[in-house]
Amino acid sequence: MGRVSQEILLELLEARRFGVEYQPIVELKTGDIFAYEALSRFKDSNGEFIRPDYVYASLHDSPLSLFQVELAQKKIQFDYLSRQQKIFVNLDQDAFYASGQKEEDNPFIKLIEQTGRERVVVELIENSEMSDAIMSLSMIEVFDKLQIKTALDDLCNPKSMLSVSVLQLVEWIKLDRYVLKKRADVNFMVFVSKIIDFAHVTGKKVVLEGIESEEDVFFARSIGADFVQGFYYRDRFLNY
Questions:
Q1: What percent of the chain is helix, strand and coil (3-state, nearest 5)?
Q2: pTM listed for this prediction
Q3: ∠ CA(9), CA(11), CA(12), 5° rounding?
């Protein structure tokens, strides 16, 4: 994965060159916005956007810096959205545990409680590292105990690893845009179909990400997705 230089990263942190973009999550049945996902955005000193995954990959070398940036981002993401709107937020498991504090004192938990747990869905990303998968499970168990809703993000991404334990605990399943790319692959779509069946039988909701056209919307309906998200909706609704 790409990274940013230490010089750019240090300047970005000192100048707090980060913000948020809200992307609508739309209910297919009604066509209405159900919630927004808060997406982290970063810029360099020239005003050019820096890929968020590059920034976070670099921040992982310093757990304390990762914690500070993630917490600052969450405060921005919660503060700049109307209190009437539901919000989905990504939360890095390394940042969550970096404070070293007990569950009840964890700054992210406190921030979610202040925002209103009924408004928030925390997205967790499963990847190819076993240690990260174990941390994700531990974190999601904390949220489950506190009745904070969770979503499994990027499911079906080639670089993700599926944890059955995590899958059982979440209330939401977000299918990666890779599903759209593989829609003609019959065997792959059998797996996707079974995941959606499992989600619905167990009372979970399914979001298909990466929607960029009307054709993608039709496809989402055809596979039984409940909600959709993507650039197709960015200019169709008023963002915050």
A1: 45, 20, 35
A2: 0.91
A3: 65
